[in-house]
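User: Structure with manganese (II) ion, tokens only please.
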Amino acid sequence: MELLEYLKRDEILFLCHHNADPDAVGSCVALKYLASQLNSKGNYRIVADSISKISRNVLNEIGERVDVEIYPKLPQTVFIVDTASINQLKVNFDELKNKDVILIDHHKKTELADICKYYIIKEDYPSTSEIIAEIFRELNIFPPKNVRIALLCGIVYDTKHLKLANPKTFELISYLIKDISFQKILSLLSQESDYSKRTAHLKACSRMEIKEFDKIKIALSYVSSHEASCAKTIVSIGADIAFVVAVRKKEGEIRVSARCRKHVSKYVHLGNLMEKIGKELGGSGGGHSEAGGLNAPYDKSKSKEKVIKEVLNLCYKRFVDEYKKAKNIN
Ligand SMILES: [Mn+2]
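Assistant:
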């Protein structure tokens, strides 16, 4: 397996996407363990520019660490894990291009793959953790309990508590779980929505504009943070598709998160749509068929209100264009 040649290297940096979720963290913890089994003298580190609260729960439980850093120093070998596009990482791209980059992911393939020496992208896997668990199984290396907890958390989190699981997911869970309590995994992943998140949900709903096209309810809104969770919430209470913008003036950045119901994703793949709109806005995007996002630079010469309006209009317009094309409506 070519992957193993890279995992045997003496120094490896494992990179998680921004606001690293349990799937990214679990996958990295397991890869780091695998590397250390293959090369006990290796120097291995996991880095993310930020870590989600739930991931912190998991890391505390298993006694592992992820270093929170932006623009980390890059060794010759860099693994990028569970990450669809370069904009989800705070790394020096010019420097990265000259390294041996290995990508392991389950999102739609983007241009990030072009700079990789080697990649494993399995879009049909509900989680990256399953891709990694399968590698362990194939190698006949049974991971220790803390690594299995990390992978199970990744799987259960990304499958939305198994709602998106497929038959293989259950097979891999039964391979991993053995002496681990499933209730324990669920409790590590459960958290009361925090105050700022609930506030953002309520604001997103109160500011929401609802448009309709071909009986599809399209919700457009904006917040200053938690845009992904807001888009998810808006779909859960009735929209067919939601676009939520967050403008971060200080960081000079616009973020858009989109979520939709399955019947919409049959016509428009949100990951593709967000990749397209992201490029149009001078940034990048990607994601899955029912969940996507983009990051783009914020044009400071324009007011926040104007930017929000323009971005939401663009999302609406491009979505309708793609939908019409797919459904053959003129
Ligand atoms: Mn994932």
